[in-house]
Design a protein that fits this description.
Blueprint lengths: L18 H11 L3 E6 L10 H7 L3 H4 L10 H5 L2 H12 L1 E9 L5 E12 L5 E10 L1 H57 L3 H32 L2 H6 L1 H16 L2 E8 L6 H22 L3 E8 L3 E8 L16 H11 L3 E6 L5 E8 L4 H8 L2
Parallel strand pairs: 5-6
Antiparallel strand pairs: 1-4, 2-3, 3-4, 6-7, 7-9, 8-9
Helix pairs in contact: 6-7, 9-10, 10-11
The structure holds adenosine-5'-triphosphate and magnesium ion.
Adenosine-5'-triphosphate binds next to helix 10 and helix 11.
Length: about 375
C-alpha cells in the first residue's frame, strides 16, 4: 500500500502557516546560533533554542532582563554593552568578537552581530542579535598556531645545527686533517733525522704551532657565532660593529655602519634577534650577493626601532618561489615577527638587496610571543 509523502511546511498552503510563523520555525530550528531580539533599551525580547543551548538561560529566565548579563564584569564596567547598542543604532549594524558569560558563569568566545531594527516610520524598535560560540574554533586555531610556531622553531634550530655542522666540517675539520697529516710526516722524518735535518723539523713544528693558533681562533669564532659573548658584554651596538669589522676582514666587502641606538634598552631578546638578522643578512651577502658595499643602519627612539641592511650586489626576485631548503630569510622574518614587528625584503635582480625590520617600542615580549604564533 502506498502512503502519502508527508508534506513539508514549505509545500503547505500559505494560509496554513503564516509567513511570520515560518520565520519563527526557522529561527527555532537554528541550534548553532543564538538569535534573539532586544528592545531599544537592551532588554531581551525574544529567545531561540540556539540561545538557550549557547548561553544556558531558558526563555522564561532571560526575556525581560538586560542583555549586559552576557558580558564579563570588565566589559560591563567599561560600558561595552551600551556602546555596542549605540554603535548598532548609529551604523545600522555592529560586529564584535570577545568573551561572553554563560548562565553558569563559564565563559565562551563569541562572534556577535547586532543589527538595529526600524519600523516603517524609521523609528528604532529594537535590535536583532546573533551570537555564535567560537570557543572550539578559537581553540583549534590556537592549537594550529602553536603547531606552526613550534614547527618553525624546530626548523630554525635544525637549520642552525646544519650551519654549525657545515662550519665545523669546512673549517675546523679541514684544519685538523691538515695538522694530522703534517704531524705524521714530521714524526716519520724525525725518526731518522740528522742534526741538520733536525733544524728543519723544528721549524716545521713551529709552523704547526702557528696552525694550532689559527685553530684556536677558528674555535673562538665559531663559539662567538653560536652565542656572541660580545652581545652580553658590550651590548648590541658594539657587537654589530665587531660583526661588521669581522665580515669586512673576512670577505673584503666594505661595510658602513650607522648605528644610533638610544634608550630605552631593547632587552636581550630583541638585541639577540637584531644581531641574528644582521648576521644572516651578511651571510647572505657573502654567499649570494657579489657585493662591494654593505650599509647597516639601526636607529631607535622611544616609539620604534628600525634596522636596514642593504647591499649593492646582484639582487634577486623576492617574489619568486623560495627554495624549500632556504631558511635564512624565513628565520629573519620569524625572529622579527616574534617581537611583534615586520621584516621586509626589497630587491630586483641587479639592484642589490635591502632588508628592513621595524619594531614598535616598548616591546611586549609576552604578547609578541603569542602574537608570533598567529
Ligand atoms: N643579499 C643577497 N643578494 C642576492 N641574493 C640573495 C641575497 N639574500 C638572499 N638572496 C637570495 O635569496 C635566497 C634565499 O635566501 P635565504 O637566506 O632564505 O636562503 P639561503 O641563503 O639560500 O640558504 P640558508 O637557509 O642557508 O640561509 C638565496 O638563495 C638567494 O638566492
Ligand atoms: Mg641565507
Amino acid at each position: 500500500m502506498q502512503t502519502a509523502e508527508p508534506k513539508s511546511w514549505l509545500a503547505r498552503n500559505e494560509s496554513d502557516i503564516a509567513i511570520v510563523d515560518r520565520y519563527r520555525l526557522l529561527i527555532d530550528a537554528v541550534r548553532d546560533y543564538a538569535i534573539f531580539m532586544l528592545d531599544p533599551g537592551g532588554r531581551v525580547a525574544s529567545w531561540n533554542p540556539g540561545a538557550q543551548r549557547i548561553k544556558g538561560y531558558s526563555s522564561d529566565e532571560i526575556v525581560g532582563r538586560h542583555f549586559s548579563v552576557f558580558y564579563t564584569p570588565d566589559d560591563i564596567a567599561s560600558g561595552k554593552p551600551s556602546r555596542l547598542l549605540e554603535a548598532a543604532a548609529l551604523y545600522g549594524r555592529i560586529e564584535d568578537e570577545g568573551w561572553r558569560v554563560r548562565k553558569d558563569g563559564s565563559r565562551f568566545w563569541a562572534n556577535v552581530v547586532i543589527t538595529a531594527v526600524h519600523d516603517d516610520q524609521d523609528a528604532l524598535v529594537g535590535f536583532a542579535k546573533i551570537t555564535r560560540d567560537m570557543t572550539e574554533r578559537r581553540r583549534l586555531e590556537e592549537l594550529e598556531r602553536a603547531h606552526a610556531a613550534s614547527a618553525l622553531t624546530q626548523q630554525a634550530r635544525e637549520n642552525e645545527q646544519k650551519r654549525i655542522a657545515r662550519e665545523l666540517h669546512d673549517d675546523l675539520g679541514q684544519r685538523i686533517a691538515a695538522l694530522k697529516m703534517a704531524l705524521t710526516l714530521h714524526g716519520t722524518a724525525l725518526a731518522g733525522a740528522s742534526p741538520t735535518q733536525m733544524h728543519g723539523e723544528l721549524e716545521a713544528i713551529a709552523q704547526i704551532g702557528t696552525q694550532v693558533d689559527a685553530l684556536a681562533v677558528a674555535v673562538r669564532r665559531i663559539a662567538a657565532d653560536l652565542r656572541p659573548a660580545m652581545l652580553d658584554d658590550l651590548g648590541l651596538q658594539a657587537a654589530l660593529e665587531w660583526l661588521a669589522e669581522d665580515f669586512q676582514n673576512r670577505y673584503g666587502v666594505t661595510i658602513q655602519c650607522q648605528l644610533d641606538i638610544s634608550e630605552p634598552d631593547l632587552g636581550e631578546f630583541a638585541a639577540t634577534a637584531l644581531f641574528r638578522v644582521v648576521q644572516e643578512a651578511l651571510t647572505n651577502v657573502a654567499r649570494h650577493a657579489h657585493a662591494h658595499r654593505v650599509t647597516i643602519e639601526l636607529q631607535n627612539d622611544a616609539k620604534d626601532c628600525r634596522l636596514r641592511v642593504s647591499d649593492d650586489g646582484v639582487g634577486f626576485d623576492p617574489l619568486a618561489a623560495a627554495r624549500p631548503d632556504a631558511f635564512g630569510l624565513m628565520g629573519m622574518r620569524e625572529r622579527i615577527l616574534q617581537l611583534g614587528g615586520l621584516l621586509t625584503v626589497e630587491s630586483h635582480p641587479g639592484t642589490g638587496v635591502t632588508i628592513s625590520a621595524e619594531l614598535r617600542l616598548p616591546l611586549d615580549i609576552h604578547s609578541a610571543l603569542t602574537g608570533a604564533a598567529r
